[in-house]
Amino acid sequence: MPRIAVVDRERFNPENTGLMINLCPVNRQGTECITRASDGKIYIDEKTCIGCGICVNRDTEKSIAILNLPEELCSRPVHRHGKNGFCLYNLPAPELGKVVGIIGRNSIGKSTALNILAGMLKPNLGNTESEINNEEVMEFFRGNESRKFFEMLKAGSIKVSYKPQQVDLIPKRVSGKVREVLSKLDEKNILDKVVSELDLERVLENDINNVSGGELQRIAIAACVLKKASIYFFDEPTSFLDIKQRIKVSKFIRGLVNQNTGVMVVEHDLVILDYMTDMVYLMYGQEGVYGVVSGIKAARTGINSYLDGYIKEENMRFRDKPIKFIEKTEERKRSKELRVSWEGMKKSLGKFSFSSETGTINKEDVIGILGENGIGKTTFMRLIAGVDKPDAGIINEKVVVSYKPQYIDTNSEETVEEILKDAISKYSTVLINPLGIERLLARKVKHLSGGELQRVAIASCLSKRADLYLLDEPSAYLDIEQRLMVSKILYDFIMHTGTSCIVVDHDLLFLDYFSERLIVFEGKPAIKGEAKGPFEMAMGMNSFLSGLGITFRRDPDSGRPRANKPGSVKDREQKEAGNYYYT
Ligand code: SF4
Fold first, then answer.
1. Is the residue at 382 inside a domain?
2. Which tens digit of pLDDT belongs to each residue from 35-60?
3. CB neighbours of 580 closer than 8 A, spacing ≥ 6?
4. What does the alpha-carbon distance between residue 206 and residue 175 come to, in Å, rounded to a whole number?
5. CA 68 to centroid of ligand 1, rounded, Å
6. Is 33 helix (H, G, I), strand (E, B) or coil?
7. 268, 351: one domain
């Protein structure tokens, strides 16, 4: 079995290098295994390491991984991020005429794979010491679908265009008005059409550093498709978008495909991935250590395999437990103990006006909120939290509220341990451990990734003593497994503590997983918004989905919600019966 030693050098404490050298039994017998390089960093020689695990166990930062990998899958990596760095095994292959998706956890190599295919990163085949030539790369991919792709790319018979994951970095690299930026890229003379389809008219005269996250995402998608290409790569194209925009962008991306054009997409929103793709690749492994790309699957069976944690065709189990969606046929007995009530609230903010119907929140209520961006969801949350007062109407709240905002402060010098203080001992089993925060405790908040920061913010919000927890977009930056884990933790926490929660989110699968009631927002973004409900789940979803013109059914094998293809038999039948949401 090939053995890999991976060290996360950002986390590893260099003061421990000497200790590790002294502890390693191979070093003690006089053979070099753990060494300190001239740059002061620790290095582990995989050829001499015997895999005893002593250094792993003594590493308090949990920054060393020593693993034996299955020979048939991992004989040689496609790429390695430096000596003792992350290893990527195998590559997905784009196809003309198809939307091909990639599904997998954060830090498992999805962006690395896209970067290689898009020609932005040259694969080193695991050789981090010397340059690899193109012939070696071609030989490596002999008999593999990727070879055909690389050959066509080299011959110039296909061109690629790439939308990066981190759209928030764009204003740091590009300046000027949105119209100017996009016009320079318009190789096909389709700017007006793309701008209209992606609803970008309103921001064309704005400076690129003066647009919202959702607008920036759509600008990045526009920039990608304005270029002449045969394969378009989209790395997480729906982050920062609301559900209506996600559906619209999905249709737009699907519309790019024809016999001369293909699309490859990485996406964490499973409903959207399912809706958008024909085929998928699964990626599994260990976060930050190694990632393996599976064979290609039809979208439905691939997503079900992923949830199952088992790839039948490859006899590969990559997760102990399957992720199950249980049909909510039996309603649990709900408490009638009132926590908050409101009636006819109104609030004006500049040109925007918010209003609400009558509503209540009871003890142990788990309520989801659905609605477009800019329609008053945060205004509602702030009124419920008592941060703002309504201009008119009544709000009756005698509760302590804990609030996780949509945007989290990333500049704090404090460590995670300092932020979470008492929560660490009090909630270690219900929050800290399940959210995977233990290994982050020593790190400064400003050094955390988006997903890590989100989990810390969720733990921080839930660990405060409160009767009502308000969470604004807790699924942002989380991968699919983390999203479903967070929804389970949230539900269990609310039931365990006898509290209540309201969650605003745009991932339908995430909300469906734990919500029992729904508040639905209607109106016109930036003009007016009205909060309706809470409704029972089926009624709320029905009301929301009918507004979008989309119907949902449950997958018979996994139980997960799936959007029906527009115009399909199921779609027509459900629309005629007024059942936009499965019951
Ligand atoms: Fe040395 Fe390898 Fe054992 Fe670590 S796992 S102590 S590197 S032999």
1. yes
2. 998 777 899 999 999 999 999 999 88
3. 541, 542, 545, 546, 550, 551, 552, 574
4. 11
5. 13
6. coil
7. no
